[in-house]
Amino acid sequence: MLTRLSLSGFKSFADKAVLEFPRGVSVIVGPNGSGKSNVVDAFRWLLGERDAAHLRGAKIEDLVFAGTSLRSRVGLAQASLVLDNSDNAWPLQFPEIQIKRQVSRDGESHYFINENEVRLRDVQDFFAKSRIGNRGLTLVGQGNSDSFVRVSNLERRLMMEEVLGFKDYRNKKNESEARLKTTKENLERINSLLREMEPRLRILRKQTSEWEKRDELLKELRILENQFFGYELRTIERGAKEVELEIDVLKAALEKEWHRVHLHEKTLRGIEDERPEVHRNMSDLLKAKEILMRKQALIERELGRLEARIELMGKDQEIKAEDAHVLIHESRRALETALNESTMHGIQRVIKTILLEIEHALYKEPRVDSKGILNAKKKYEETIAGLEAELEAIQEKEKEYNALLINFNTRVREAVREAENARLFHTRLLDKERTVLIEKARWGYKHKEICGHLAQAGRNIDEIDTTIMHEPLSSALFQRMHALRNELARIGAVEESTIKEANELESKYMDLAREAHDLHDASGDLSVLIEDLTKKLSRDFVKKMNAVSVAFDRYCNHMFGGGKARLLMDEGEENAIAGIRAEVDLPRKKTQGLESLSGGERSLVSLAALFSMIAVNPPPFLILDEVDAALDEKNARRFAGVLRDLSLKTQFVVVTHNRSTMEAAHVLYGVTMDKDGTSRILSLRLE
Ligand code: ATP
User: Fold this and answer.
1) CB atoms within 10 A of CB 463
2) Which atom of ligand 1 has the smallest separation from the CA of 34?
């Protein structure tokens, strides 16, 4: 319920003016130009009007008291409306609700609900929910009493919606549609952004996936390489180490052997230096032997002579020629044998035997006169014995020299053999050293080769752990290692900046996609809401409109004393708001269009429509500014009667000059223009 209106600095109300509104009809009267319509303007302004023209001003600051010749102007216009909410009829949980609006001369506006500053929008919403609007029916301005007839079908529909409580739905629908439009635009914008991003993203995704694949391949390759190079390097290191050890051992052995070679050569030289002086002694010995031989020849000659003498001595003794022949022959053979004898002793023995044979042959018994011969023989025998002894001594010496030479030669041979053996062993060691050095070089070459492979693979030797045992790569794994290298080479290098770009674009894309998804959901929700609101605005509205149509017929009949009237909905295009048209058959008149009605008839039809809407769905209050102006006495009375009836359902604030209307008032206010050119309120409470 409307409780109170306070004005201050508003238009002609320079001073504070307060109007209390009881239930029923409050009528405001006063002379022309006293400020009655300014009160209606205050209502309109409080209900959320923004257009200065609708408030009868050029600009919103024109609402501020401009001053008169006797009153200076003010800086702030203010109006407030107090609503009783003890029956919770208003859409706020307060027992009393105050709506206040201010505007300063510099155009600054403020809105308050219960002294809390709010937005204009909040005020508009509050009244829309309360089925109070400024569209022309809850607040009918001066000269607008026939607006229901005058306006277009669509405007009529909107007017009806306002009074019948659909304005909130309409606002919500408009708002939802606007939001849906923006949402769809945003969605389209985002979708087109997403579409724009997609080709680049596809490329980047491919690169990223290749990069990820590359990373995995690289990891696998590293493991295989670590095993491969680890095994190879460890093998090389171990091989090289073994060779080094072998070289050390060989070096030591070579040195030792070289020493041994020297030692043996020195020993040989020493032995050679000890070579016995056998040759000179031997030649002395041979000379002595020769002398002895010559002496032997001399004896043989002497022996020959002796034989000749023996022959002379034996003339008287007949020697058979045959025996002599045998004797000579045997002597000769014995002497030849003796000459072949190597020893002097042998020669002597043979000569002795021959002499005995000769003696035996010649003298079966030795003759006494052969004494001299025998002496000579004895002498020869002694000489031969001497020669034999000498020859024996020489032979002993010869034996001794031979033994010395044999011993020397044996030693030399032994020393040479030893030296040669040592040299051979040394040479063999040298050969072995050469082989091992080649082996060392081979390990070095292998190491270099592996280092080359490492460099080719872009690996550093420090990365390879050779402290652990590695299995050699199986041929399948070796092939895998090569295949991985080929695959990586095919993929090629992926720039880090590309991956960064890919991540950034991906996250931007995901954000936008999420946003698009949210917008899509939101547009779905809005569509559902719009559909719901559309249903309310069509189905529910049609129900109410039909009820209003029935009441319209009744009120027209009442106001015109007969006739027929009804409201019909246009065949609206889909999604467009279907307009409302009114058909009126006045009594005693042919069916005419609304356009041909007289001014008073127009007002009556409009008021009948207003009353029918109030009857179906009474708003909390109505402000009517001289809507009865065009009515004649009889119709004014009818109007006042209906007003009085409907005031049981709704509160009326009516500005009028009409006596009948004044008579319907429960409270009467008089507005006067003071001498200083400002408006004043006089309360003339009737009840
Ligand atoms: P009618 O019966 O002729 O309709 P009314 O009582 O409705 O008259 P209003 O139109 O409410 O009269 O008042 C108009 C008066 O208010 C004018 O005299 C006008 O000068 C005055 N007025 C309007 N705006 C201002 C303002 N900002 N400052 C001072 N006076 C103003």
Assistant:
1) 12
2) 6
Q: Coil, helix or strand for 642?
A: helix
30 C-beta closer than 6 A to ligand 1: yes
- The token duo for 131 is 């089925």
> How far apart (Å, rounded) are the C-alpha atoms in residues 641 and 674?
33
pTM over 0.70: no
Residue 338: pLDDT above 70? no
Model confidence at 317: pLDDT above 80? no
Q: What is the set of domains in the chain, with CATH numbers?
A: 1-138+623-687 (3.40.50.300), 276-402 (no CATH)
Rg (CA), the chain: 80
- Interstrand relation of 651-655 and 25-29 (parallel, antiparallel or unpaired): parallel
Residue 69 Cβ < 6 Å to ligand 1:
no
If you take atom 20 of ligand 1, which residue's CA is the nearest one? 12
Q: 23 CA distance to ligand 1 centroid (A)?
A: 27
Distances, alpha carbon 90 to alpha carbons 46, 96, 198, 273, 333, in Å: 16, 9, 53, 149, 186
The two tokens of residue 354 are 């021959």
CB-ligand 1 contact for 342 (6 Å cutoff): no
Least confident range of 74-88, 293-307, 442-456, 630-644: 293-307
By C-alpha distance, which of 358, 301, 368, 309 is closest to 331? 358
56 CA to centre of ligand 1 in angstroms: 10
For residue 44 and ligand 1, the question of a CB distance below 6 A is answered with no
At 365-402, the pLDDT tens digits run 444 456 777 777 777 778 777 888 888 888 888 888 88
Ligand 1, atom 26, residue with closest C-alpha: 11
pLDDT of residue 319: 56
Q: What is the pLDDT of residue 368?
A: 45
pLDDT tens-digit readout, 280-304: 777 888 888 888 878 877 877 777 7
* Ligand 1 pocket member 13 (CB < 6 A): no
Place of tokens 């155009």: 107
User: Which of 546, 550, 609 lies closest to 145 in space, CA to CA?
Assistant: 609
CB 12 within 8 A of CB 678: yes
Q: What is the pLDDT of residues 516-535, one digit of tens each?
A: 999 999 999 999 999 999 88
CA distance 604 to 666: 23
Q: Is the CB of 38 under 6 A from ligand 1?
A: yes
CA 63, 67, 72, 74: dihedral to nearest 10 degrees? 0
Identity of residue 545? M
- Tens digit of pLDDT for each residue in 219-261? 999 999 999 999 999 999 999 999 999 999 999 999 999 999 9
